[in-house]
């Protein structure tokens, strides 16, 4: 897990930069619309569209990667839990019973 902290910080920093560039381009586009220079507006619009597409692609890629990492982690945890239950069935039954008693007590208090 310690390996993910630098990766997360790097990803967060890249996301901030992407959003900053996109915001800056959109602000330029908005301020350019105050001018009546059609070529300037078209150039800024093209840049804004390009940055928007790049940012969207990066966000989709990161989202897919995060989903994959979370899915792999969850599968690993489920496999570890399944192994534990198969290796220690009576302990697992005891833990389940204890949790059931606690939940029953909490529900009974209402």
From TrEMBL:
DUF883 domain boundaries: 13-59, 82-110
Gene3D superfamilies per UniProt: Apolipoprotein
One family name in Pfam for this protein: DUF883_C
Membrane topology annotation: Single-pass membrane protein
Spans traversing the lipid bilayer: 90-108
Coiled coil stretches, renumbered: 12-65
Alphabetized UniProt keyword annotations: Cell inner membrane, Cell membrane, Coiled coil, Membrane, Transmembrane, Transmembrane helix
Family: Belongs to the ElaB/YgaM/YqjD family.
Database matches in PANTHER family: INNER MEMBRANE PROTEIN (PTHR35893:SF3), INNER MEMBRANE PROTEIN-RELATED (PTHR35893)
The protein, known as: DUF883 family protein
Organism: Halomonas mongoliensis
């Amino acid at each position: 897990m310690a390996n993910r902290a630098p990766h997360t910080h790097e990803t967060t920093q890249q996301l901030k930069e992407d959003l900053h560039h996109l915001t800056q381009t959109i602000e330029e586009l908005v301020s350019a619309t105050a001018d009546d220079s059609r070529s300037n507006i078209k150039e800024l619009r093209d840049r804004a569209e390009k940055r928007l597409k790049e940012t969207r692609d990066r966000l989709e890629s990161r989202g897919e990667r995060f989903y994959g990492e979370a899915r792999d982690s969850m599968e690993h945890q489920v496999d570890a839990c399944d192994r534990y239950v198969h290796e220690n069935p009576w302990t697992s039954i005891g833990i389940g019973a204890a949790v059931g008693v606690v939940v029953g007590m909490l529900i009974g208090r209402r």
